[in-house]
Amino acid sequence: xxxxxxLIPQDFFAELCEQIIQHLxxxxxxxxxxxxxxxxxxxxxxxxxxDLAKIANTLSFLFSTAARNNLSTEELVTxxxxxxxxxxKHVVQVIRHVWNEQGKAIAVAEDAGNMATMGQFxxxxxxxxxxxxxxxxxxxKYPYVTVTLTVAxxxxxxxxxxxxMTIPQxxxxxxxxxxxxxxxxxx
Length: 187
Hints:
Blueprint (H helix, E strand, L loop, with lengths): L9 H15 L8 H10 L6 H20 L4 H9 L7 H24 L7 E12 L10 E11 L5 E9 H20 L1
Antiparallel strand pairs: 1-2, 2-3
Organism: Alaudala cheleensis (Asian short-toed lark)
Family: Belongs to the COMM domain-containing protein 6 family.
Pfam families: COMM_domain
């Protein structure tokens, strides 16, 4: 992943850093690395989502550690320069700019409380389907509901989790959501 950071164009790298800062400041639930990776690949850069996720995790760790240690911009840049393999100039420039502009805000957010240790719910989608037949069974006519939950992991990565339910399972799921909603209305 360290070699791949050199390939990311400066504008995309700046966007990634901005999203990480916003995530650390609790302004967005996470970084959509899948969407960003697709845009980077469309621009002609050969990078996969796994490498981009590693870069995002590393930058998130860098910024949150710098915030906890209350590093100045120059201290952060000096620390980056003392590494085993030097980072490309455009990477250091972006990190310097982002930290100079928004580093203090992260320090305040980190002091306010620790990050959640579980994912944050972002979105939910569902669809109704019917299995008509399969290799082993000619006539299924089996209705099911597919639910896709979008979750922002504590690392900041946004992931989709999908599962299928039978109609009775979905009705139970729906009933539990209604119960939660009624309890929340009393609070």
